[in-house]
Amino acid sequence: MTVRADAVRFLFVGDSMTVGRAGDFTWRHRMWQHLEATLGEGGYAIVGPRTGLYDAEADAPVSTAYADPSFPAPARRHLAGWGEGWLHMAPLIEDAVARSGADVLLVSLGLIDLGFYTDSDQTAANARAFIAAARAANPHVRLVLLPVIPNVRAESDAPFADSCARFNALLAQAVADLDTPVSPLLLAAHPSGYDIHTDTYDGTHPGPSGEHKLAATFAETMHRAWSLGGPYAPELVPELAL
To answer: What per-residue string of b and e applies to 104-136 under the rule 16 or more CB within 10 Å gives b?
Structure first.
């Protein structure tokens, strides 16, 4: 695919919900379909240093077994990893943005941090460090940040649920504090109608309907705020249609 000089370069950043595992479509695939439909061939590029799905045996994002084998290799690019969070991505993002020329970062991080590595305040500090590092590489970079969304641990662990809620409030405050006209930040809404019992395969990781809903919340956020792309087509997402 020939990419125009004015093409928007998107970089997906995330944890296991974004990288996906062998056999998944991934919400990245759903977003690629959306970008094809709304920006058209040559009007966008998907960038990043990795392309694979998580391979449990290798414990690395090296699988090529996407559920849709026609998912183009260039569109598979990302910066996501199983078990990686803000803590891990903050040191990597400056180089990733500089090397890829990313214009827009679509970021879904936080659950793994709160679950295994850092408390809500430390996680929020790492999110702020991530934003600063991305801007160091591209002062005009735009970011869409997804809060921690419903998950099975939060359903049964009240202190963890409180930690997720506190982090989400701190993330919203970071967006309000750091948003600028030159490098705008957006806080995505929780995916509409997201149900961990039907939209995930294990209470956390999205299945096909969850993948669509994650892509939809990023797409709708960008379209409403920046007129970038278009509405997420309901005919492609039967479970979201009215």
So the answer is: bbbbbbbbbbbbebbebeebbbbbbbbbebbbe
